[in-house]
Write a structure and sequence with these properties.
Layout: H1 4-24, H2 31-38, H3 44-56, E1 60-65, E2 68-73, H4 77-91, H5 95-104, H6 108-120
Helix pairs in contact: 1-2, 1-3, 2-3
């Protein structure tokens, strides 16, 4: 029997690879172009499914190109991390506790960076 966590891991890895290919491009890519960039032997239908799921999650935007779509990331890697962090925070009913626990778990270097950013008003 396969653990559910193990089943999700490849999808996350595939999503990360697709995102890396899109971030490396300065233009929107079609599923076929992403497939070519990956050079991993993935079927185009698999790449299309991954792109569609990332679009549904709000990670990508798409534009009509021929009979299909071309995709581009909405955020750079750091912006995407921040967007995910905000999403997690928005789902918690006690934001103050969530933020307090997040800060309490920061290492000394990250804590210094956060203090500096808050002091600078960023």
């Amino acid at each position: 029997m396969t653990d559910a966590k193990d089943e999700r891991r490849p999808a996350g890895e595939l999503e990360a690879a697709v995102m890396a290919a899109l971030w490396a491009s300065d233009m929107p890519l079609t599923p076929a172009q992403v497939q070519a960039e990956l050079s991993s032997g993935l079927a185009r239908t698999t790449v299309t499914t991954i792109l569609s799921r990332l679009y549904e999650k709000g990670t990508l935007e798409r534009e009509r190109q021929g009979r299909g779509y071309a995709y581009r990331p909405i955020q750079d890697p750091h912006g995407l991390t921040a967007l995910r962090m905000h999403g997690e925070l928005a789902r918690d009913s006690d934001r103050e506790s969530a933020l307090a626990r997040f800060v309490a778990q920061l290492g000394p270097e990250d804590e210094q960076v956060l203090r500096r950013l808050l002091e600078e008003g960023l």
